[in-house]
Design goal:
Helices cover 1% and strands 45% of the residues. With 305 residues, the protein is an all-beta fold. The chain starts with 8 loop residues before the first strand and ends with a strand.
């Protein structure tokens, strides 16, 4: 029998939670809490729509023009966002991850980035999904298998949902004091500015998203005593979803999922905790450098509220 288009299917269950993982891109295909969707799902036999639920590595977001310099060498990545001329969301989102471990409440998948044009580094990417009574916990680990240091960054790409038809009716709490402004045409980074100067993107006090367009990286995150930051969404009926991450991700990209297709546009809110900002291979801001044999891990959680 042929596999579904999204790859091997893995279901994990714990308490009131159930998640479906697809091996292509180690993607979170669905997550339900008491039968309520917490992320916008897609079908098993469907080519994953865009980056919905995918793992982003060895960089999240964009490398502008696909060009960067590292350790004195110039590199040119394939332009996977041709309309804007950027290299988008890394190299593993369409790889078929091998399944390493399977349990009722957890799975571990792994894939290897082989040295290639634009990224001549050898890095293993391991992804763990685990469910418990407090929700879904995901951990992504990069391990340098090569002889040279490698640039690294990672993050997830879930589209959170409260079950409302569009994000316009959703109340957003985003505890970020700074936003990375971008160009209107290519979304290339411009400057880090306070949200006080951009009140349309100030969601430190929860409020409805309305018709606001968001496709920006935020930082200056308010954290609790344990160092955790959280983005929360609440729908018109009071149901909500929360995404939480620790200091390993000092950035979060938020996107209102605007598309030309009225049937899919603004159906969920992309919330992407990131180890680094967009275009990190050029800016070097919060860039992780994996030394030979070293590894780096980042984690985040999603739960119903």
């Amino acid at each position: 029998m042929t596999e579904p288009r999204s790859g091997r299917q893995l279901r994990i269950v714990a308490g009131d939670y159930e998640a479906d993982i697809a091996s292509i891109g180690a993607s979170l295909r669905a997550l339900r809490f008491r039968w309520r969707d917490l992320v916008v799902p897609f079908e098993a036999d469907e080519v994953r729509p865009g980056y919905r639920g995918a793992v982003l590595a060895p960089w999240p977001n964009r490398v502008v023009d696909g060009r960067y310099s590292f350790a004195g060498e110039e590199h040119q990545l394939p332009l996977t966002e041709p309309a804007r001329g950027h290299a988008l969301h890394g190299l593993v989102c369409w790889l078929d991850f091998a399944v390493r471990e399977v349990a009722d409440d957890a799975v571990v998948l792994a894939a290897v980035i082989v040295p290639q044009a634009g990224y001549p580094f050898h890095v293993e990417v391991q992804v763990e999904y685990r469910l418990d009574a407090r929700g879904l916990h995901q951990r992504v680990t990069g391990r340098n298998l090569g002889a040279d240091a490698a640039p690294w960054g990672t993050g997830p790409h879930p589209y959170l949902t409260t079950g409302d038809e569009h994000v316009d009716q959703t109340e957003l709490e985003l505890p970020a004091s700074e936003v990375l402004t971008v160009t209107a045409d290519r979304l290339s980074p411009i400057a880090l500015e306070g949200v006080d100067a951009h009140p349309e993107w100030d969601f430190r006090t929860p409020r409805a998203i309305g018709d606001t367009f968001i496709d920006h990286a935020f930082t200056g995150l308010t954290r609790d005593a344990a160092g955790a930051a959280a983005v929360r969404l609440r729908g018109a009926k009071g149901d909500g979803v929360e995404m939480v991450w620790d200091a390993g991700c000092p950035w979060v990209q938020v996107h209102t999922a605007d598309t030309p297709d009225a049937d899919t546009s603004r159906r969920g809110l992309a919330v992407e905790p990131m180890t680094c900002p967009p275009d990190v291979f050029n800016s070097g801001t919060d860039l992780v450098v994996l030394q030979p044999g070293a590894e780096h891990a980042a984690s985040w959680s999603i739960r119903g509220i």
